[in-house]
Amino acid sequence: QLQPVESGGGLVQPAGSLRLSCAASGFTLAYYAVSWFRQAPGKEREVVCTINPRDSITHYSNSVKGRFTISKDDAKTTVYLQMSNLKPEDTATYYCAAVAGFDIGLGHPFSGYDYWGQGIGVTVSS
Predict the structure, then answer these.
(1) d(C-alpha 81, C-alpha 20), whole Å
(2) How far apart are CA 105 and CA 90, in angstroms?
(3) Cα–Cα distance measured from residue 79 to residue 73, given in angstroms and rounded to the nearest whole number
(4) Would you say residue 51 has pLDDT above 80?
(5) Is residue 89 over pLDDT 90?
(6) Dihedral angle, C-alpha 87, 91, 78, 66, nearest 10 °
(7) How confident is the model at residue 53 (pLDDT cuts 50, 70, 90)?
(8) Beta strands of 26-91 (E only): which ranges?
């Protein structure tokens, strides 16, 4: 089954850092735009950031700009989300999603993604 797999979540203290990974299984992410989403308990899913296949152009939501960095390792078919200066409001289940072949922005609809990961929990708490 073609599905991205997230890893690297867990518990971290406020102001700490964490790196999430999104690994492709059965396909290469080199030709896909990849986004990270998150969903906190009782809240709607929201897009966090996106990296495009062409030139690896990135987009970030205002809530994470300057703190989170998305990057792609084409050789290992993995996309990373480096999270720094974490805040309790970053607590959520984080998902990666991929769409083939073209550049997208933060407003790309959920239904427009080809593959979704199962999600991984991140808790920011002292």
Answers:
(1) 5
(2) 21
(3) 6
(4) yes
(5) yes
(6) -30
(7) confident
(8) 32-39, 46-51, 58-60, 68-73, 78-83
